[in-house]
Amino acid sequence: MAEADKPAEGTPDAAPAEPVRPIIRKIIVEDGHAGAHGGAWKIALADMMTAMMAFFLLMWLLGASTDDKRKSVAEYFRPASHSQIVFGELAGSNGMFGGKSIIDPEDGFPFTAKQTALLERLTPQSEGGPNADNGSSQEERNREGPQDDAPSGAAGSSSKQQDKENYDKLEKDIKQKLQDNKQLQGMKDQVNIVREKDGLRIEVIDKADYSMFSSGTADMNGKAANLIKEVAKSLKDMPNKVAIRGHTDSMGFAPDSLRNNWSLSSERADATRQILQGAGINSNRFSRIEGVADTAPFVSNNPADPRNRRVSITVLNQ
């Protein structure tokens, strides 16, 4: 060891160095306002706004609805199971302790619920649905007097009266033409006019010695075509729609033929439609053009009778 490196004699050794203390940094993050509440207030606010929107929408709908519609909505929410069971007796409220139960149908509920069909739930009476009220509700309506649908009832009655007058005039006009027109006098017995629930049906019927169409075809002969044109003249000024149906007898085609009575009756109905339209009946007035073959015979006990071959022109109710 060198002389210079030796400590001096009589000098104490150097003190040991102190250890280095680590530097500790403490970072404090303030929670702020969100620390106390989080995001729950947003959900609560959204729920409240949704409820308010639904409430105001309900109030608007109720204000825009008629009395009949509001009654229909009330009927929808009525329970449908309480009127069939006497709950007071089943619950034993008339037993040992007497008294009455809150589910007693006489005092517990201010009404007697009634089961109604699904269609009655979906379609209110004011919109053409079936009558969803009966019993006491009917009595209430009777006490209230005429409802809002009275004008529509009056309009319906007016339409029925107008149809009756038009049918009377049409029937009289056709019979008069059959009597005055020499070409049509021989067909008086072949024209059948019938009142039915759908309207006024005018049938032109074949006879054993006379046929409107050539056998197995839809070619109408001249006399029958003139009759259809006269009917068209009487129908031209009426607002009612028209339905045409073709009929045949039970005599069929050859087995190897592609034609049958269904196609023949349909073709004859359409041939009648063409003559009516050519005589002035607007195309949008035709409601149905159909052929029913021999399924609706005029003479039911003899399907082969010639009178089963006919064409029906029905003037439909308005």
UniProtKB/TrEMBL annotation:
Primary site of residence: membrane
Pfam families reported in the protein's UniProt record: MotB_plug (PF13677), OmpA (PF00691)
Membrane-spanning parts: 43-62
Biased composition (Polar residues): 123-137
Region (Disordered): 121-167
Keywords, alphabetical: Cell membrane, Membrane, Transmembrane, Transmembrane helix
Key word Cell membrane present: yes
Domain OmpA-like: 200-318
Ranges in coiled-coil conformation: none
Localisation: Cell membrane
Membrane topology: Single-pass membrane protein
CDD domains xrefs: OmpA_C-like
GO cellular component, one term: plasma membrane
InterPro entries: Bact_OuterMem_StrucFunc, MotB-like_N_dom, OmpA-like, OmpA-like_sf
Keyword Nucleotidyltransferase tagged: no
Family statement: Belongs to the MotB family.
PANTHER family per record: LIPOPROTEIN YIAD-RELATED (PTHR30329:SF21), STATOR ELEMENT OF FLAGELLAR MOTOR COMPLEX (PTHR30329)
Protein name as it appears in the record: OmpA family protein
Organism of derivation: Limnohabitans radicicola
